[in-house]
TrEMBL record:
Family named by the database record: Belongs to the glycosyl hydrolase 1 family.
Gene3D superfamilies: Glycosidases (3.20.20.80)
Secreted found in the keyword field: no
Enzyme class: hydrolase
Catalytic-site annotation from UniProt: 369
Pfam families the record matches: Glyco_hydro_1
A GO BP entry: carbohydrate catabolic process
GO molecular function: 6-phospho-beta-glucosidase activity
Keyword annotations of the record: Glycosidase, Hydrolase
GO cellular component, one term: cytosol
Keyword Hydrolase: yes
The name this protein goes by in its record: Aryl-phospho-beta-D-glucosidase BglA
EC number(s) per entry: 3.2.1.86
Length: 471
């Protein structure tokens, strides 16, 4: 084979909380993202106790896909998307998370979105929970530190599986499941109280999410055996800073943080390094024999992952060594350039990541996030000449193809992150743009929300038309 498979899934990826808007429309409830204010580069977003009048909550309006989805999906079709990765906002289906009956208006909205995609021949790829769990589950139950959330989540899964069983084939229960141990608010709704054992809370929550994911796989297969259900990992691509064995060991330990999750979800049991980590840190995680059985039975069909940049690991770092990245930070690699936000640009790192994952697990992979955040400017003729974004994607696609065609990696598809400009999850900014489509909105929430095709729009269109041959 000297070219990508004809059924390779080219497309784009978004999250409901970052682009839908309509936060209080159609019976939707408040999510954990709805109580996060705007931030900036280097300034954390504030998590408020409920909605406070006068605060800037950028996710509330986002880019208003909720009202504009037909025109936006038409633009995705114009680019030639084979698939579209999005999420179902939990709070549109169960506004409080603990109801017994779903919100029909929310279900109808996603019926319309998925039908619109399918009308154009675009395969929906769905993340069930992407940083948008109901805020009520935090206030009332403490978020994912509480095992009761397993049943609430499975109720949500059952409703959407049954509703869309003939429309959706590819599913991922959680986005970046390993984020729970790094930034536990967005994936888990966890804020720590004074004196709480934070490490124990995070890993207990991780266990509950892993059990929930395994149960979601089992449930999904019982509803439609043809479902293809995967995990979604924030991949911490990292290298040892030197050939010093201590640096190499630091690199291995960093990978363990992420591979703990995929080891459980693909192999069906806790890896020995994680059991030793819990023993060493006196983490008395509640793991029942029934949990172990469920984890063995509910393994995933593929590994979806996000990849933006890489970093290095140093056994004895200083603060000056720190680098930026997708929530999980490492240290600066002096051999790599970086984006305006300090994310190091490493196309070969994508090929390395694909090889690492495929060598370790030997199941299909899916690049479900890869993108470049930058400030875009209009030219005098009204165009947006984002050659820096084109260059980023061109080099990453080249390396992706090498992983498939030269290294033998089995890859389902490639969805670029933020195919249309949206609210940054990390900072809440709009000026950090990822899309092929510009959305007229600034960091203060002002703008017409008009859509404009960037030069990268036409580049990606050609890339998809040629199945990656014309870059």
């Amino acid at each position: 084979m000297n070219k990508l498979p004809d059924d390779f899934l080219w497309g784009g990826a978004v999250a409901a909380n970052q682009f839908e808007g309509g936060w209080n429309k159609g019976g939707k409830g408040i999510s954990v993202s709805d109580v996060m204010t705007a931030g900036t580069h280097g300034v954390e977003r504030v998590i408020t106790d409920g909605i406070i009048e006068g605060m800037n909550y950028p996710n509330h309006k986002a880019i208003d896909f909720y009202s504009r989805y037909k025109k936006d999906i038409a633009l995705f079709h114009e680019m030639g998307f084979k698939c579209f990765r999005t999420s179902i906002a939990w709070t549109r289906i169960f506004p409080n998370g603990d109801e017994s009956e779903p919100n029909e208006e929310g279900l109808l909205f996603y019926d319309s979105v998925f039908d619109e995609c399918l009308e154009y021949g675009i395969e929906p790829v769905v993340t069930i929970s992407h940083f948008e769990m109901p805020y009520n589950l935090v206030v009332k139950y403490g978020g994912w530190r509480n095992p009761m959330l397993i049943d609430f989540f499975l109720n949500f899964c059952e409703v959407v599986y049954k509703r869309y069983k003939n429309k959706i084939k590819y599913w991922m229960p959680f986005n970046e499941i390993n984020m729970i141990i790094r930034k536990p608010w967005k994936p888990g709704g966890i804020k720590f109280s004074e004196g709480e054992n934070e490490l124990l809370t995070k890993y207990q929550a991780a266990h509950y999410m892993l059990v929930a994911c395994a149960k979601a796989v089992i449930l999904g297969k019982s509803i439609n055996p043809d479902f293809i259900i995967g995990t979604m990992l924030l991949h911490t691509t990292t290298y040892a800073a030197t050939c010093n064995p201590d640096d190499v060991m630091a690199h291995i330990k960093k990978l363990h943080e992420a591979y703990f999750f995929t080891d459980v979800q693909v192999r069906g049991e806790y890896p020995s390094f994680q059991l030793k980590f819990m023993e060493k840190n006196n983490l008395d995680i509640k793991i029942s024999e029934e949990d172990k059985k469920i984890l063995r039975e509910g393994t995933v069909d593929f590994i979806g992952f996000s990849y933006y940049s890489s970093s290095i690991e140093i056994a004895n770092p200083t603060t000056e060594d720190a680098s930026e990245g997708n929530e999980i930070k490492g240290y600066k690699n002096p051999l790599l350039p970086a984006s305006e936000w300090g994310w190091q640009i490493d196309p070969v790192g994508l090929r390395i990541t694909l090889n690492w994952l495929y060598d370790r697990y030997n199941i299909p992979l899916f690049i479900v996030e890869n993108g470049f955040g930058a400030v875009d400017k209009f030219e005098e003729d009204g165009s947006i000449n984002d050659e820096y974004r084109i260059d980023y994607f061109k080099k990453h696609v080249e390396q992706m193809k090498k992983a498939v065609l030269e290294d033998g990696v089995e890859l389902l598809g490639y969805t670029t992150w933020g195919c249309i400009d949206l609210v940054s999850a990390g900072t809440g900014e709009m000026k950090k743009r990822y899309g092929f489509i510009h959305v007229d909105k600034d960091n203060d929430g002002k703008g017409t929300l008009n859509r404009t095709r960037k030069n990268s729009f036409y580049w990606y269109k050609k890339c998809i038309e040629s199945n990656g041959e014309e870059l």
